[in-house]
């Protein structure tokens, strides 16, 4: 009664069954995110506000998760905010090594305050140097979205190239 | 103050696990069988004695087989029995024990076998790619994220808010790999130094290679029975006295990452049930979830065993060492033992069970222990599961 670990040196030598399922998805952006994506095309970041508790959802949601009632107001938030966290990635999503680090982080968009536990926030690329990340100077900096030229926007989160320090 | 919940007392009477390794030549079912058989042997039961089976396993995509609960059923002793499978991301392991607890506590079953299995090695080119499908397909996936990004973001936020240095965080990795040397099941036990961690490959700054737990295959299993019959099988049943679990939203970019409020909620739920009012005074040994080294500090704070931002200082002072005030991850944790996701969480629960029973062998902590806590965490910085046990 025992189990059988593969020896370290044999790790790469065993046969592999290759199989690529044609699993492709056509996701629905949904009621809230469709408007959000169209907003990005116009260079606006749109959110939904719960009129009961005042919480603003960015990316937007059609209901308030706390009050469990419909959020009833579209609001435009600023394309400016504060860097909450930033990291520099030296690996791709398949864990291959990258020569130049990709810098990403989360941005707390205005209007919001430093005391908020939840806030309108986006996950995106940040245009800054590896040094700024490494010595944490990018934290707390006010950044603004760098938009793609209007004709190149497709209604995607990538319509924002990155956030950069103003 | 204890809650006025009416439930039957539940005891753990046996546990077993396989060693955790980078790649096992056994199928997921064979691994599950191995762990289940060992757990039944320790409990002194046969499969015919078991009423219900609970299976825990994280994304199907790791093993590369859908319906993993059903797939694992025969290895986990689930054929022709009521079987359920639980899944809350990385928090699944402890949730498997919690689910087994309520199967018994409700009076539905008398003897339950809880089995958790994960085989992370089949995915090519790297199990990392499987995580691509946990992100929001509209707002996050187009940025090509990988899993380590999100941990790095949380780690850097935690470091920035609490002024924690990389050196202090590396101490967790050093401690856990050292503890794992005493664990016969461990994959990566050894003596490393803070310098080794700081010089290892930078994956996503501030995360380096030795900050992260390895990819592993493995399984773990546990037998939980009704308190009425526990003493038929053992003189030293270990009682499950509190459970708690909560989920936060998936909107991690719009949430403070420096402190896990969802974990505090889960911990408070479990502590209330167990009648724990001063966690730092009443808890003797803890197994917080440590897929990354900073996570153990983050979780010790969420478990209310350290004030916000105080865990690194206590760690440095040896408070959480194996001979400290509250030994933390005496098994070696995920960093040392390995991280087959669901099995790793149940391994943590089993470690506390063995500590309280006094059968942890080389891993046994120096002080006498009465109350132990195991915790797991998962999903997009949002799920936590907590279990309190006493002897």
Automatic annotation (TrEMBL), chain A:
Pfam families, per the entry: zf-ChsH2
Entry superkingdom: Archaea
Domain ChsH2 rubredoxin-like zinc ribbon residues, every copy: 38-69
SUPFAM superfamilies: Nucleic acid-binding proteins
Protein name: Putative nucleic-acid-binding protein containing a Zn-ribbon
Lineage: Archaea, Thermoproteota, Thermoprotei, Sulfolobales, Sulfolobaceae
UniProtKB/TrEMBL annotation, chain B:
Transferase listed as a keyword: yes
CDD domains: SCP-x_thiolase
Thiolase C-terminal domain boundaries: 263-390
Highest taxon above the source species: Archaea
Gene Ontology MF, one: acyltransferase activity, transferring groups other than amino-acyl groups
Domain Thiolase N-terminal residues, every copy: 10-227
InterPro entries: Thiolase, Thiolase-like, Thiolase_C_2, Thiolase_N
GO biological process: isoprenoid biosynthetic process
Keyword list, A-Z: Isoprene biosynthesis, Transferase
Coiled-coil region(s): none
Keyword Transferase carried by entry: yes
Annotated PANTHER family: ACETYL-COA C-ACETYLTRANSFERASE, ACETYL-COA C-ACETYLTRANSFERASE (ACETOACETYL-COA THIOLASE) (ACAB-3)
UniProt name for this protein: Acetyl-CoA acetyltransferase
Lineage: Archaea, Thermoproteota, Thermoprotei, Sulfolobales, Sulfolobaceae
């Amino acid at each position: 009664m025992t189990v059988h670990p593969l020896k370290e040196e044999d790790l790469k030598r065993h046969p592999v069954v290759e199989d690529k399922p044609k699993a492709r998805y056509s996701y629905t952006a949904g009621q809230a995110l469709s408007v959000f994506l169209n907003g990005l095309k116009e260079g606006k970041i749109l959110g939904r506000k719960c009129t009961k508790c005042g919480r603003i959802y960015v990316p937007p949601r059609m209901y308030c998760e706390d009050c469990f009632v419909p959020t009833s107001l579209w609001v435009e938030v600023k394309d400016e905010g504060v860097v909450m966290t930033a990291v520099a990635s030296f690996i791709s999503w398949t864990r291959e090594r990258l020569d130049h680090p990709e810098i990403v982080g989360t941005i707390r968009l205005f209007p919001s305050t430093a005391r908020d536990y939840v806030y309108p926030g986006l996950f995106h690329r940040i245009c800054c140097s590896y040094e700024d990340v490494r010595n944490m100077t990018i934290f707390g900096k006010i950044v603004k979205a760098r938009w793609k030229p209007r004709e190149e926007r497709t209604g995607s989160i990538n319509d924002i190239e990155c956030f950069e320090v103003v | 103050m204890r809650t006025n919940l009416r439930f039957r007392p539940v005891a753990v009477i046996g546990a077993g696990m396989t060693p955790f390794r980078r790649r096992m030549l056994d199928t997921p079912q064979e691994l599950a069988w191995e762990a289940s058989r060992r757990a039944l042997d320790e409990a002194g039961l046969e499969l015919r004695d078991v009423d219900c089976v609970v299976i825990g396993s994280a994304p199907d995509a790791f093993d590369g087989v859908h319906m993993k609960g059903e797939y694992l059923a025969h290895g986990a002793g689930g054929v022709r029995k009521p079987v359920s499978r639980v899944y809350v991301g990385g928090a699944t392991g402890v949730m498997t024990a919690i689910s087994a607890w309520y199967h018994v506590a409700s009076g539905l079953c008398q003897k339950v076998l809880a089995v958790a299995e994960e085989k992370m090695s089949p995915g090519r080119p790297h199990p990392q790619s499987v995580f691509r499908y946990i992100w929001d397909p509209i707002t996050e996936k187009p940025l090509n994220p990988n899993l380590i990004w999100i941990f790095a973001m949380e780690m850097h936020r935690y470091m920035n808010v609490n002024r924690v240095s990389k050196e202090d965080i590396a101490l967790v990795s050093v401690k856990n790999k050292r503890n794992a040397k005493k664990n016969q099941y461990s994959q990566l036990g050894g003596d490393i130094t803070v310098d080794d961690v700081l010089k290892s490959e930078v994956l996503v700054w501030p995360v380096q290679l030795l900050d992260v737990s390895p990819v592993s295959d493995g399984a773990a299993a546990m037998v939980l029975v009704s308190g009425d019959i526990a003493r038929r099988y053992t003189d030293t049943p270990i009682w499950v006295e509190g459970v708690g679990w909560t989920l936060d939203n998936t909107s991690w970019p719009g949430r403070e990452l420096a402190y896990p409020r969802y974990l505090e909620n889960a911990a408070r739920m479990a502590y209330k049930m167990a009648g724990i009012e001063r966690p730092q005074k009443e808890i003797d040994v803890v197994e917080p979830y440590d897929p990354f080294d900073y996570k153990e500090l983050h979780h010790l704070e969420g478990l209310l065993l350290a004030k916000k931002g105080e865990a690194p200082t206590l760690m440095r002072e040896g408070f959480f060492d194996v001979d400290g005030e509250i030994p933390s991850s005496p098994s070696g944790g995920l960093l040392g033992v390995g991280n087959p996701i669901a099995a790793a969480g149940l391994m943590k629960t089993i470690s506390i069970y063995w500590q309280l029973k006094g059968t942890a062998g080389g891993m046994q902590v120096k002080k006498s222990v009465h109350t132990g806590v195991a915790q797991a965490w998962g999903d997009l910085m949002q799920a936590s599961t907590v279990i309190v046990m006493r002897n």
